[in-house]
Amino acid sequence: MSEADTICAIATGLGDAAIGIVRLSGPEAGALLRAVCGGRRLAPRRLSLAPIRDPRTGLLLDQALVTFLPGPRSYSGEDMAEVQAHGGRLNLQRLLQLFLDLGARLATPGEFSRRAFLNGRLDLSQVEAVAAVIGARSECALRNAQALLAGGLREKLAPLRQQALELTAAVEANIDFVEELEATPERQALARRAGRLAAELANLAGSYATGRRLQGARVGLVGAVNAGKSTLFNRLLGRARALVSDEPGTTRDYLEAEVCWDGRRLQLVDCAGWRPLALQSQLERAGAALAEQVLQHCDLLLEIVDLTASTAEPCPWSTLQDVPWLRVGNKIDLLEEPRRHEVRTGGALEVVSALSGEGVSSLREVILEKLFSGLTEESLFVTEERQWRALEEARAALGAAEQALEAAIPPELVAEHLRQALGALGKITGESFSERVLDEVFQHFCLGK
Q1: How far are the Cα atoms of 87, 267, 294, 342 from residue 230, in angstroms, in the given order?
Q2: Buried b / exposed e across 59-96, counting CB within 10 Å, b at 16+?
Q3: pLDDT tens digits, residue range 174-198?
Q4: Segment 403-433, tens digit of pLDDT
Q5: Half-sphere exposure of 196 (CA within 13 A, CB side)
Q6: Strand order in the sheet with 255-261
Q7: Which is nearest to 323 in space by CA: 370, 373, 385?
Q8: Three-state DSSP class for 376?
Q9: Sheet holding 80-86: strands in order across?
Q10: 358 CB contacts (<8 Å, ≥6 apart)?
Q11: What does DSSP assign to residue 100?
Q12: Is the pLDDT reported for residue 206 higher than 90?
């Protein structure tokens, strides 16, 4: 595999469609396009209607719109060509095979975007945003991905990286003049600069907690049997998905369903209810064990409490205490005053009637606030674990530099912490990278992107 190769791939989804696109990139892209268009000269960056023929036999394969995009002003930064042909799996595969037979190579997943990065057309955070735009499954995820693709993360990092460079230069300038850096005010000033920079990186890294949920947050419904979990599950979905019965233990397995509220995607999980172990059947115990495994991967748990029950069964899933919980009191419609007023004003839990819908709209708002706090149209969130880890590495290195400055550690050791921070920041946008990192980034890309 070489950058000197001309690569090609189908850039649109396979299936019945009006239009499908075959894309080429590399030094022979223009020559291959002219060959299948009968040798005609094609004006750069203009759509031209042309018959597509096999130059070896003259066989007409399709009538298509074709475009030649000379580098470096192209997506990949090198010569590109695109054929907008009639859609359909067989037709596109036949056109793709024609270019392969004429000397092009099938692109590897994400290779067009990989070349765009290597040729300086996109930084690494933008490359990851390309995949995020394609895979967006909610309005807020798409909006954030488009902001990242426009270079939003690079713009946030640029001044922070510049500050880190200036701080490193200030420390390194004193390596040969240790006695000058020993002055307490100078060291304290540098330590404060490192601390402020570490705090800013911590804020940006903290956005990952919300950012990773943009593609979909998981919310688990748990509680004792007959607390009304399945009724509330159906109410939150807006449709009957779970069976509801007065018989205890109706839900044996967990149920999952997707819902979108205000452009935010959630996966709701309805789990089997708990009751004293002595009353559980073997099937119920198996369902509870399975539910516990699923709930460990939830972003929020709703503990549904039956407000009419005389006693509450304690939660048996102590291992889930690391997952955020929200207590929801159900069946408020069955309470008499003043107990009803007491529960509403107590503030210990959210209060609803899953049966009538009372309080459910308010509960939805509370759930969204807990999962997506700080989410606005202008906000920008880190969504990739790789980027979050790099930010955390840079923050930790700056924190170590701050402590070293305060402890009067020699400046060459302080500078080492700062260089580590710079290296970590470089990983995010690609100033520093390895083939392993690139392979990791592009492994989930489709062939035509």
Answers
A1: 44, 14, 17, 26
A2: eebbebebbbbebeebbbbbbbbbbbbebbeebbebbb
A3: 665 555 555 567 788 899 999 999 9
A4: 999 888 888 889 999 999 999 999 999 988 7
A5: 12
A6: 255-261, 264-270, 217-223, 300-306, 325-330, 350-351
A7: 370
A8: coil
A9: 48-53, 60-69, 80-86, 19-25, 7-10, 105-106
A10: 332, 333, 352
A11: H
A12: yes
Rg (CA), the chain: 29
CATH class held by domain 217-372? alpha beta
Q: Which residues of 271-300 are buried (b: 16+ CB within 10 A; e: fewer)?
A: bbbbbeeeebeeebeebbeebbeebeebbb
Beta bridge partners of 270: 221, 255
Torsion, Cα of 204, 205, 210, 216 (10° steps):
120
Beta bridge mates, 50:
64
Query: Which has more confidence, 392 or 413?
Result: 392
Homologous superfamily of the 7-122 domain (CATH): Probable tRNA modification gtpase trme; domain 1 (3.30.1360.120)
Q: Which amino acid is at 337?
A: E
Which superfamily, per CATH, for 126-209+382-429? tRNA modification GTPase MnmE domain 2 (1.20.120.430)
419 Cβ contact partners less than 8 Å away, ≥ 6 residues apart: 168
Contact indicator for 222, 317 with CB cutoff of 8 Å: yes
The pTM assigned to this predicted structure is 0.83
Alpha helices in 72-183 (DSSP H): 89-101, 111-118, 124-135, 139-149, 152-172, 178-181
* Domain boundaries defined on the chain: 7-122, 126-209+382-429, 217-372
Determine the Cα–Cα distance for residues 95 and 101; give it in Å rounded to an integer: 10
On whether the CB atoms of residues 175 and 415 are closer than 8 A, the answer is yes
Give whole-number Cα distances, 233 to 251, 255, 328, 370, in Å: 12, 9, 12, 18
- Extract the tokens encoding 169: 């230069």
Q: What is the largest CA-CA distance in the chain?
A: 89
Asked if 99 contacts 81 with a C-beta cutoff of 8 angstroms, the reply is: no
